[in-house]
Every structure is written in C-alpha cells, then in structure tokens.
Write a structure and sequence with these properties.
There is one protein chain. The chain is globular. The chain is 74% helix and 3% strand. It has 17 helices and 4 strands. Strand 1 (2-4) and strand 2 (9-11) form a beta hairpin. By secondary structure, the chain is mostly helical.
C-alpha cells in the first residue's frame, strides 16, 4: 500500500498515486510561477504563504475529481492553481481581519509587513488567479465569480451576525457553506469539468465538495480549541480571542440559554470578557476543551463528512472514489 499526500490517503495502485502526485507537483510549480513579480518584494510577500506549505486540500480534490474524465486535459492543473490562489489570497485578508500572528507555522504577512502590505498582497494574488482563469473560458470565469460572491457573502454574514429570530447555529452553517464550502465545491467542479467528465459526475462532485468543505471548516473550529500550535500551524484559540463565534462556542451558548447551568453561564461570561488577557484566554480554552459543546461540534463534523461520503454513491467505483471517501475520514480524524 502506498500513500497519496497531503492527507495520507492509502492508494493501492502505483500509477494512480503517481498521477495524483504529478498533478500536485505541477500545481506547486504553477503557484510559484503565478506569484512571481518583477518587483522582488512583491514576489517575497506573494510567495510567503505558498512557501509556508499547507495541505493543498483544494488542488488534491481537483486532481481526484479529474480522474472521472481525462485527467491529463490541459485545463485541470491551471484550474487547480486558480482555486488555490484564491484560497491563499483570502488567507492574507483573513489574517488582517483576525489580527492573526501566525499562519501555517510562520509569522502571518500582516505580522511581518503590516496590514496594508498583507491586504495588497492578497489583492495581487487574486489578480494572478484572474489572469489564469481568463484563459480557461467564460464558463469557468462565471463559476469562479459566483463562488467568490458566495465566499464574500459568507464572510459578510459572519461579520454581521445572525438577524433577529435566526438560529445562530443555522446562521453559522450557512456562513460556512458560503465562506468555505463554495470554493471547495469549485475545486471539485473544475477538476471534473476541465477533465470533460459527464455532467452528472460534475454535479455529484460539486455537491460532495461543498459538504466536505463545511466538514473541513468545522474540523478547524474544533482544532482551534482542542489543538496546540504544532498540530494546527496557528495560535490556539485565535478565533476565540477575536470573538469569532465558532460552532463549539455557539453550542455552549445554546446550552447555557436552555439549561441555565451556573458553570455554563460563568463560561459564557468569561468568553464575553476580555480574552486579550493571556490568563483569561488560557482559562477559557481549558474549560471549553472539557465542555460537552466541543464533542457536539465534533459530531456535527462527522455528520457533514458522512453526508459528503453518501453523495459519492452514484459514481463508478475506483481508486479516485475510494480516495474521496478516505478524505471524509481524514477530515473527521483532524477533529479528533
């Protein structure tokens, strides 16, 4: 048995593994080419997160989805590069919004060069993604534009918060479907579409991608609380410190409102306080790690991953389908 990185997927066919690895290597080369500038400083800033590594989750999905058509079709790798560049660009902006100090185990761009450079670098990366996208045709441009609209709408909805009478948990899941699920869905869609897969396979893989994307983000929510920086590549409790209402916190608030248990109410009060204080932040993390709300968030992660897996049922059996199933397991494993 061999292994397909970056998620340690088992592969029982050397040709399949070699093909996926070759695709990912081509994407990596494409990312570096796309982020080069005639201005050395722009190249350094634009390649900062590329060279920091990362899971390359979206390119992997594009490579696997392409297996349902002509995996060597010329648009597959550029489309995967576009999706990963879009993702990287959002990270530059996210770190500014979150005032994050660490990303992928290295200082964030905003911590290293300041917010203005980080925002402009994200814009530069977006522009390079758009340049590549233009060569993939008007349908690809339309799909990417719609996904990007959903992504930004999800981010705005997260910032605005739920409206009156809207369940905060349902609101948050809608945020994730836009902010994360939309771009993961496009990775699958582009991979299959550029490979010339039939329309039904493209639709199935798109639905799979959105559900898996939500599960992936929910796993991140759990990791933000449950992991240390070595595991996640980020400072633990970053979302917590910034007051971002991730799923474990939303479940805690719902339980506290429903049951009124003193310990829960006390923890909610702690979370509503000043978590810029390291001692208070550490105490909030410690108590959340022991709270049933964290386990409830893990169960939600499993549910979305299982929905993604079930979506794959009509696809023909093969190494690619097995790998996509295993990705569901890998996402759940990240959440513990």
């Amino acid at each position: 048995m061999t292994v397909v990185e970056p998620f340690g997927l088992s592969a029982r066919d050397q040709a399949f593994e070699a093909d996926v690895q070759a695709g990912l290597a081509a994407v990596e080369s494409g990312l570096l080419d796309a982020t080069k500038s005639s201005v050395p400083f722009i190249t350094e800033a634009a390649q900062h997160l590329v060279r920091a590594g990362g899971k390359r989750f979206r390119p992997l999905l594009a490579m696997l989805a392409a297996q349902f058509g002509d995996r060597d079709a010329p648009g597959v790798v550029p489309a995967a590069v576009v999706v990963e560049l879009t993702h990287l660009a959002t990270l530059y902006h996210d770190d500014v919004m979150d005032e994050a100090d660490v990303r992928r185990g290295v200082p964030s761009a905003n911590a290293r060069w300041g917010n203005s450079v980080a925002v402009l670098t994200g814009d530069f990366v977006f522009s390079r993604a758009s340049r590549i996208l233009a060569d993939l045709g008007p349908e690809a441009v339309r799909i990417q534009a719609e996904a990007f609209e959903r992504l930004v709408t999800g981010q705005i909805l997260e910032t605005a918060g739920p409206g009156e009478g809207v369940d905060p948990v349902e609101h948050y899941l809608e945020v994730l479907r836009g902010k994360t699920g939309s771009l993961v869905a496009v990775a699958c869609r582009f991979g299959a579409m550029m490979a010339g897969a039939d329309e039904s396979a493209v639709d199935i893989l798109t639905q799979y991608g959105e559900r898996l994307g939500v599960a992936f983000q929910l796993a991140d929510d759990v990791l933000d609380i449950a992991s240390d920086s070595h595991e996640s590549g980020k400072t633990p409790g970053t979302d917590l410190r910034e007051g971002i209402p991730t799923l474990p916190v939303l479940h805690l608030r719902a339980q506290a409102a429903a049951d009124g248990k003193p310990d829960d109410l006390e923890l909610v009060e702690l979370l509503d306080g000043d978590l810029s204080d390291d001692a208070r932040h550490a105490e909030a993390l410690r108590r959340l790690r022991a709270h049933p709300a964290l386990e409830q968030a893990r169960r939600d992660t499993v549910r979305y991953a299982e929905e993604a897996r079930a979506t794959l049922t009509p696809l023909p059996e093969g190494y690619a389908k097995s790998a996509l199933r295993e990705l569901c397991d890998a996402v759940v494993h990240r959440a513990g």
